[in-house]
Amino acid sequence: MWLRENVVVHRVQSLIEREKSGNMKLLPGNIKVLFFARGEPHVEIITVKEPKRRLSLSSEDSELEEPEYRKEVEDDLIVLDDHSQLLDDDYHLKMLAAHMPARTQGCPWQLVYSTAVHGSSLKTLYRNMVGLDSPVLLVIKDMHNKVFGAFSSDPFRVSTSCYGTGETFLFSFNPKFQAYRWSGENSYFVSGDLESLQIGGGGGGFGLWLDADLYHGSSFSCPTFRNASLSTLEDFIVQDLEVWTVHN
After folding, report:
1. Quick check: is 55 in a domain?
2. Whole domain around residue 10: which residue ranges?
3. Model confidence pLDDT, tens digit, residues 149-177
4. What is the pLDDT of residue 154?
5. Would residue 51 count as lying in a domain?
6. Interior CA angle at 44 toward 39 and 46, to 5°?
7. Is residue 223 part of a domain?
8. 36 and 140 housed in the same domain
9. In terms of pTM, does the model score above 0.90?
10. Mean pLDDT score of the chain
C-alpha cells in the first residue's frame, strides 16, 4: 500500500509541475489532493467502487439507505438445507444469489413454510415465522408454471403498517429472470393482516398480493418497485408456494 501511495504522490507531483508550465491535466477521478505541506501534496486514494452502506433489519430511515448487493457472482449459489419443489435448478439459485444483500452471503437457507407440507393458510405462514429475525425468500409457482416471488428484509407478520427496508425486491422467471429493486418512490415494502399479504404498492395495485388461503393472488405494477406484473396474468392461481429463511 505504501508503495502504491508513493507512486501516486509522484504522479500528482508530476501533474502539479505541468500546472506551472501551463499544461495541467485533470487528476484521475479516484485521486484527491487534500492539502499541501511543505510543497508536498497529501493524497487520498478513493476506490472507483466505494462500498455502499449496509442496511439494518429495521425499516426506520430505510429510504435514506442504499442496500449493498453482491454483483457479478460467479459459481455462487444459494445453499438450501431442504429440497425445493420450485427452485429446482442451478439457474434459479444463481440468478437469485446475484441479487441478494451481501449480509446473506454464506448463510444456509432453511424451509420455513411450504403449501406442500403445511397446507394453504396465511395464518400458518405467520405462525411459522413467529420469533424469526432474518430475511425471507417467498417463491411462488402459478397454474401456468411461472415462478416468481419476493425477497423480504423482514419475516412476514401481521402488522398495522408497512415494514421492511430497501433490501426488499420482487423477482420473476417469466420467462427470463428479472429483479425489481426498490425505486425509492415510497416505502410500502411489506404489510399484512389475517386476510392478505401485500408487497409493494402506492399505485392502486400491489406488486404482489396473496389471499388468506394462499390460493388467489395478483401482481400489478407499483411505484415501490416499478415492476411489471410478475405472473402471466395480473390475477393468478397459486399452484405451490415456499418461504425460505437464512440461518442467523
Report:
1. no
2. 2-45
3. 999 999 999 999 999 999 999 999 988 99
4. 96
5. no
6. 155
7. yes
8. no
9. no
10. 78
